[in-house]
Sequence to fold (190 residues):
Amino acid sequence: MRFKGFEGEWVEIKLGECCVSLEYGMNSASTKFDGENKYIRITDIDESSSRYKSDNPVSPEGALSDKYLVKENDILFTRTGASTGKTYIYDHNDGKIYFAGFLIRARINTAFNSGFIFAQTQTASYDRWVKLMSMRSGQPGINSQEYASFNFSSPTKLEQDKIALFLSKLDIRIQTQSKIIEQLKSLIAG
Fold:
């Protein structure tokens, strides 16, 4: 299925070709939230929605470096443990966020649509790739070089933009419906 007006074959591309950089987060403990600087760790990424769980924010301890600040077009990948492969795409509504050491930040090149690339991490083929790539003798894990090798099909930037916009609108619709369902469950329980 394609949007009207787009033609041509999609090309195989590696995640590393879409990134300006793939970097590890800061190795800092968390502390009480200071009111401004949030600290995103593996456990702060919701398993089902891939969104930042902002209900109980924390801040990073110690000196802060902008090197670890998550920005527009950044995607975070979990690199170790049972939730290896879990991803989060930065949302400016989440505020000022620094990322922790068990996460890898993919800073997406502006020649690509980060929403489209993030959508590739929500597919069954990505899940299969993660299961295969993260097999270790001990704890599962994927390093930055392995993430850079993740392969997927990609159309032109214009078509990526159109697909990402469509998926974004669909996601908003799903969130709205989920809230309505939760409110109805609350009413029924009352």
Notes: Helices lie at 15-18, 114-120, 124-133, 144-148, 157-189. Residues 39 and 137 are 30 Å apart (CA to CA). The radius of gyration is 18 Å.
